[in-house]
Design brief:
It is a single chain. The chain is of the alpha+beta class. It has three domains: 75 residues, no CATH class; 85 residues, Roll (Pdz3 Domain), CATH 2.30.42.10; 123 residues, no CATH class. The chain is 56% helix and 18% strand. The strands form four sheets. The protein has a four-stranded antiparallel beta sheet with strand order 5-4-6-7. Strands 1-2 form a two-stranded antiparallel sheet. Strands 3-10 form a two-stranded antiparallel ribbon. Helix 2 runs antiparallel to helix 5, helix 9 crosses helix 11 and helix 10 runs antiparallel to helix 11. The longest helix is centred in the middle third of the chain and has 29 residues. It is elongated. The chain starts with a helix and ends in a 5-residue tail after the last helix.
C-alpha cells in the first residue's frame, strides 16, 4: 500500500506541473486543445468550449496539448502523410502542394491544400487506420497555423506558459512546507507522534503519545534524541518514557541501520509555528534545497555529485519509506520531490521546459524562428543527457545493476 501511495503522489506532482502549463496558456489566450487526468488514450472525455477534457487510461500525472509548439514544416508532411501517399498515389500532388506551402511560409496556400487533401481523403480508398491518422495529422497542422498557436505568441507569453509548469511545482513545495511548519513541523518535542510498524521501537513497545524522558538514564532534549540514536552505532539503548501518569522503561533495543543512519523507527510530535514564521521557514528551506540541488548538478561533470542522483525507482522507494514513517514525513518528502521536478525541468535542455524557455528567448532576440532541424538535433542531445541522468540514478537506486 505504501508503494501505491508513493506512486500516486508522484503522479499528482506531474499533474500539478501540467496544470500549471494549462492554466497559464488558458489565461494568455493560447487556447489549449486537451487536458487529461492521466495520459491518453481516453477512458472518458468531453469537449467544452473547444477544449477536450478527459480521463486517461494511464492513471498517472496529466497531459495538456497546446497547439503549434513549433511552426509547421515540410518534415511534418513527410513524417505523417507518407503512408496515405503510398496507399493512394493520386494524393501525391496535393501533398506536395502542402509541403511546398509550409516550406514557403505561405499559410493561406497551406490551409487551401489541407482542405483539398481532406476532400480527397474522403474520396479515395484508404485503410481506416491510415485515414484516421492522416486526418488527425491535418488537424494538427491546421491548428498550428492558427492565430492562437504557441509559436506565434509574444516571447514573454511563451516563457510564462512554459515556466508555469515548474513554478506550479515550486508553489506546491512552499504550500506543503508552510502547512508542515505551521501544524507540527516547527519545533520538535519529546512526545512520540507515530511509531513505524515492525520497527525496533514498535518491538520495544514504544507507543504514540509516549513522552521520552531519558535515553540510558540520561535526560535528553528533543534535538538530542536523533543525535543519540544516530551515534549509537547499533548498540542497544534503554528508553525511559512517561505514559499517562506512569514512568515506563523500554528496552534495551538496538537501532537499525536505515539509509546509512541508525534509527529506532518513530517520529516526534512537533509544535506549530505562527503562519508568517512558517511561511518564511518554508521559503528558507526551499532556497537552501535549491542551492544544494544546483550544487549537485554542477558537480556532475567531475563525478562528485553522481551518487546523489536518483531515478523514479529511488523516488518511489524513498516516498514509500516516508509513508511508513508517517504523514508529516511523507508530505515533506513530497514537497522536496516537487521542487526537484521543477528544477530538473528548468535545465536549459530540450525537450525539458528550460530548453523551450531558452529557445523562446533566442527566437525573440533573433526575431524569427529557429529551424526545426536545430530543435531536433538539440533535442537528441537533451534526451541523451536526461537518459544518462536516469541511468546514473538507477545505478544508485539498484546497486547491483550493470
Amino acid at each position: 500500500m505504501s508503494v501505491l501511495v508513493a506512486i500516486v503522489g508522484l503522479g499528482f506532482l506531474v499533474l500539478v506541473h501540467e496544470l500549471g502549463h494549462f492554466s497559464a496558456s488558458l489565461a494568455l489566450k493560447m487556447r489549449p486543445r486537451k487536458f487529461y487526468l492521466g495520459f491518453p488514450p481516453a477512458i472518458v472525455k468531453r469537449t467544452h468550449r473547444g477544449i477536450e477534457y478527459g480521463i486517461g487510461a494511464v492513471p498517472l500525472g496529466g497531459f495538456v496539448k497546446i497547439p503549434g509548439m513549433h511552426r509547421p514544416a515540410p518534415a511534418d508532411v513527410d513524417a505523417r502523410l507518407a503512408r496515405i501517399v503510398g496507399e493512394a498515389p493520386s494524393l501525391t500532388g496535393p501533398t506536395e502542394q502542402l509541403r511546398w506551402a509550409l516550406g514557403a511560409d505561405d499559410d493561406d496556400s497551406a490551409r487551401a491544400a489541407i482542405g483539398t487533401l481532406r476532400r480527397l481523403i474522403d474520396e479515395v480508398s484508404l485503410a481506416e487506420v491510415s485515414r484516421t491518422h492522416a486526418l488527425k495529422a491535418l488537424d494538427d497542422i491546421e491548428e498550428a497555423l492558427g492565430p492562437d498557436a504557441y509559436w506565434r505568441a509574444a516571447t514573454w507569453k511563451r516563457v510564462v506558459v512554459i515556466a508555469a509548469g515548474p513554478l506550479a511545482n515550486i508553489l506546491l513545495t512552499l504550500v506543503l512546507l508552510t502547512v508542515l511548519f505551521a501544524s507540527s513541523g516547527g519545533r520538535a518535542t519529546t512526545q512520540v507522534a507515530e511509531v513505524v510498524p515492525k520497527s525496533a521501537a514498535a518491538h520495544a513497545g514504544l507507543r504514540a503519545g509516549d513522552t521520552i524522558l531519558a535515553i540510558d538514564d540520561e535526560v535528553i532534549s528533543p534535538s538530542d534524541i536523533p543525535k543519540r540514536i544516530g551515534a549509537s552505532g547499533g548498540h542497544p539503548l534503554t528508553l525511559t518514557v512517561e505514559r499517562g501518569n506512569r514512568y515506563v522503561t523500554l528496552g534495551p533495543v538496538a537501532p537499525r541501520l536505515d539509509n546509512h543512519v541508525y534509527r529506532l523507527g518513530f517520529a516526534l510530535r512537533g509544535a506549530g509555528m505562527p503562519l508568517p514564521q512558517a511561511s518564511w521557514s518554508a521559503l528558507r528551506v526551499t532556497g537552501e534545497v535549491t542551492r544544494d540541488i544546483g550544487s549537485t548538478i554542477g558537480h556532475l561533470a567531475s563525478g562528485s555529485g553522481r551518487n546523489q542522483i536518483s531515478s523514479p525507482v529511488g523516488i518511489v522507494q524513498g516516498s514509500s519509506q516516508a509513508v511508513k514513517e508517517g504523514t508529516d514525513s511523507y508530505l515533506s518528502v513530497l514537497a522536496l520531490i516537487s521542487l526537484s521536478i521543477a528544477l530538473l525541468n528548468l535545465l536549459p535542455l530540450l525537450p525539458l521546459d528550460g530548453g523551450h524557455i531558452a529557445f523562446a528567448i533566442i527566437e525573440g532576440i533573433r526575431g524569427r524562428a529557429v529551424a526545426r532541424e536545430v530543435y531536433e538535433r538539440v533535442s537528441v542531445v537533451g534526451i541523451a543527457l536526461v537518459l544518462l541522468l536516469f541511468v546514473i540514478g538507477l545505478k544508485n537506486d539498484i546497486p547491483n545493476i550493470s
